[in-house]
Amino acid sequence: MEPCQSLALLAGSLGLASSLVAISTDFWIVAMGVSSAHSGLWPKGGQDDPVKGYIHVTQSFCILAALWGLVAVGFLVLSCIPSLSAPGRGPLVSTVTTFAAALSMLVAMVVYTSERWGQAVHSQVQTFFCWSFYLGWVSAFLFLCAGALSLRAHCGAQRPGYESL
């Protein structure tokens, strides 16, 4: 197994794990004031407090990124096992799916960041982005790294030539 493939598998696995943890935890925003509170991507909106549209967009793209990441890690594992992968196709498919996961997570994070950044500020309450939010950005970066490493593994792989016939 070549080093770029193993590093791509490591980065893809870490990206998938961090995106799943970021999606499932409720520490995207912390509000500090008289009391403190935190919220995530799954707020409990009632009849009088509906969930905003940007939260639905962020949820959808985060789930899509996790699914793309799962497919990418699966193809990265298969590309590391020569008997199970098609010659030269495993890293290419994993590259495309990893970049799709990175793009989906980037869209989710940009939408969430831009909407939360522009919200009105209360003088009595301070809000901060918290660790789940930052873990989402880390997963986008890890997916980008995994895609670049997988692309490097695909471009650097030896192609069967006339000598092998």
Model regions low in confidence, pLDDT < 50 over at least 5 residues: none
Question: Helix coverage percent of residues?
Answer: 55-70%
Number of strands: 3
CATH class: Mainly Alpha
Q: What characteristic shape results from the CA principal axes?
A: elongated
Determine the structural class based on helices, strands and strand pairing: mainly alpha
Termini Cα gap:
23 Å
Write down the secondary-structure element order.
Answer: HEEHHEH
CATH topology category name? Four Helix Bundle (Hemerythrin (Met), subunit A)
| CA-based gyration radius | 20 Å
Identify the CATH architecture: Up-down Bundle
Approximate strand percentage: 5-15%
Mean pLDDT: 84
**Can you count the helices?**
4
Largest sheet, in brief, is:
3 strands, antiparallel
Give a description of the structure.
It is found in: Cell membrane; Cytolytic granule membrane. Keywords: Cell membrane, Cytolysis, Inflammatory response, Lysosome, Membrane, Transmembrane, Transmembrane helix. It comes from Heterocephalus glaber. Belongs to the PMP-22/EMP/MP20 family. This protein has one domain: Four Helix Bundle (Hemerythrin (Met), subunit A) (Up-down Bundle). Helix content is 63%, strand content 7%. The protein contains four helices and three strands, in the order H-E-E-H-H-E-H. It has a three-stranded antiparallel β-sheet. A hairpin with a 3-residue loop joins strand 1 and strand 2. Helix 1 packs antiparallel against helix 4, helix 2 runs antiparallel to helix 3 and helix 3 packs antiparallel against helix 4.
